[in-house]
Write a structure and sequence with these properties.
The chain is of the alpha+beta class. The protein is built from three helices and 14 strands. It has a six-stranded antiparallel beta sheet, covered by helices on one side. Strand 7 and strand 8 form a beta hairpin. The N and C termini lie far apart (111 Å).
Length: 260
């Protein structure tokens, strides 16, 4: 009988202790207004709107068959920034089209090169550039005229380019240019006679080479440099005051825009 009473008391004490421990446990929390405000909204960033810009809007003059007409393409988010890039495509009448860096974010550039076909003299090349992100698409159109002509300036342009590059390799090694740098070139502004223009493109740089068709001391030669896929305008410019005098290059004021 005494054992039964002891067992009964132990059972009661166990129930009391378990209840006390349960009352000490942390109660479940319910979401508050503050919690809901800090929860990120899952916006459809892939379909956010953007604008498309093309530089230049027109060439400085005409073009000739085989000339490389290079347009710089940039995008800008409208309102909320997106983590998704814009894909650039392009098409042109009577011309070959090459798109470099076709997937770009707002802090980057794409380049669209348009090369008029043989036999396109007297025609207007119409270029349509398309940017697409998700279901959002924008288009931009530029055009230029093609005239008869041929590249008769390559030899002088290469000679002048190499003079500047050799000097830059010594005086501005931070630019990474050397006599081994590989370039792709094209004549531009073919109808400009007093000052001749040429463009060269390496993997990293665009170099605009131009020179005055005059006798010394007015036979200057100049270049400006643009960082490709990053900048929309040149960042450096240099001049040789007289090509015949073979003077050393000096820094000059940088042009506000690229030459096309």
């Amino acid at each position: 009988m005494r054992n039964s009473a002891c067992l009964f008391l132990c059972l009661i004490l166990s129930v009391v202790i378990a209840g006390s421990l349960s009352s000490c446990a942390t109660p479940p929390t319910t979401p508050t207004d503050t919690d809901s405000e800090t929860t990120p909204i899952n916006a459809d960033e892939e379909n956010l709107p953007f604008s498309l810009a093309v530089l230049p809007q027109e060439l400085k003059g005409f073009s000739i068959p085989g000339q490389r007409c290079v347009f710089l393409i940039s995008v800008k988010d409208e309102g909320q920034a997106s983590q998704h890039p814009v894909v650039i495509t392009a098409a042109a009448s009577d011309a070959q089209v090459i798109v470099e860096h076709d997937t770009v974010f707002p802090d980057q550039l794409s380049e669209v090169t348009v090369i008029p076909n043989p036999g396109s003299e007297g025609k207007t090349v119409i270029v349509t550039i398309t940017g697409k992100r998700g279901q959002v698409e924008n288009k931009a159109t530029v055009s230029f005229e093609v005239i008869e002509g041929e590249d008769d300036r390559l030899e002088t342009a290469v000679e002048l380019r190499q003079t500047f590059v050799s000097w830059l390799a010594e005086e501005h090694p931070e630019l990474g240019l050397s006599d081994e740098t590989e370039w792709t070139g094209t004549m531009v502004s073919p109808q400009w006679l007093v000052v001749s223009h040429y463009l060269f493109f390496s993997d990293e740089w665009e170099m605009h080479v131009y020179w005055h068709i005059m006798i010394a001391p007015d036979d200057w030669g100049r270049i400006d440099l643009r960082k490709r896929f990053v900048d929309t305008s040149p960042g450096y410019a240099f001049e040789i005051s007289s090509r015949e005098a073979d003077g050393e290059p000096v820094s000059i004021e940088v042009p506000d825009e690229v030459w096309r």
